[in-house]
Amino acid sequence: MARYTSLIQLPRFETFNDALRENYIRIETLLRFGGNENIQLARRLRDCSEGVKSCNSLACKLCNRRFRLEKVDGLVAKIRSEKKGKRKRYWWMVTIIDYSRAFSCEDLDSFDVQQSKDRLRKLLKRSGFNGPIVGSFEVDFHESCGLWLPHFHLLCRGTKQNRRAKKILTQKLARQQSTHIKKGREPKPVKFQFVKRYFTQVSYVYKLVSNCVYDYDSWSIGKIRTNKKRLNDAMFCRSLCWMDRIGRRRVLFSFGERDWS
Q1: Which of 51, 81, 132, 244 is the most buried (most CB within 10 A)?
Q2: In degrees, to the nearest 5, what angle opens at C-alpha 206 toward C-alphas 155 and 216?
């Protein structure tokens, strides 16, 4: 397997031109729907895309691409350099889903991301985790039930202490998140995966995008599966404005990272 040295080397990572095209799609959609907030955001995205002035908005694909390159390359370098004795220390990619705080479209603007992050920090601390744990907050719209579902993607060391904490966290979430937002579905509030494909998995943690999740029947396995697509235009505009208002720093998460060198 190729040993990549930068996210930019991944075949599926978006090019500068890919990000630029996506920005113009966003600009066109915002202008077509109109309204002061949409138009103001479209103008800022256009200035950024044309090199007039960098916007550094969470709604900007170009600025997010630049951030992801720097963030992911730096994290992968740190993770790869860590050793436990003569062996490399292993890491997990963790997904935590908050079914109990799924919310309707009307509540998107009032959802408190900081409060969600604070609750997660308390949960990690009470479960006994040691840092550093880093990652990001995301929210996707689930079409079949009409709800936005908040969740976190995290990176966590697989230390002895954290292995014990993993069991406690899993038990806590099984009690706290016992009901799925869709009828007949089994809740899976937490998932741990070993980090093996460094750039692929770390970049997934920092996707910085909201999608529409839809259900479909998989005849090959006889189950209902999910997939993702772009939000419809009205919701897409609303989510872009929401992302622009809260900013990138608000969706980034860290726990016990301060002393990580």
Answers
A1: 244
A2: 100
Quick one: pLDDT band at residue 2, thresholds 50, 70, 90? low
What letter does residue 101 receive in the DSSP assignment?
G
Exposure string of 141-178, with b = 16+ CB inside 10 Å and e = fewer, is bbeebebbbbbbbbbbbeeeebeebbeebeeebeeebe
* Tens-place pLDDT, residues 131-145: 999 999 999 999 999
Supply the pTM of this predicted model.
0.93
Q: What is the pLDDT of residues 36-55, one digit of tens each?
A: 999 999 999 999 999 999 99
Joined tokens for residue 149: 């579902």
Query: Residue 146 is which amino acid?
Result: G
| 198 vs 216: CA distance, rounded Å | 30
What CA–CA distance (Å, rounded) separates 112 from 108? 9
What is the secondary structure of 53-76 as a DSSP string? -----TT-HHHHHHHHHHHHHHHH
CA distance linking residue 236 with residue 23, whole number of Å:
13
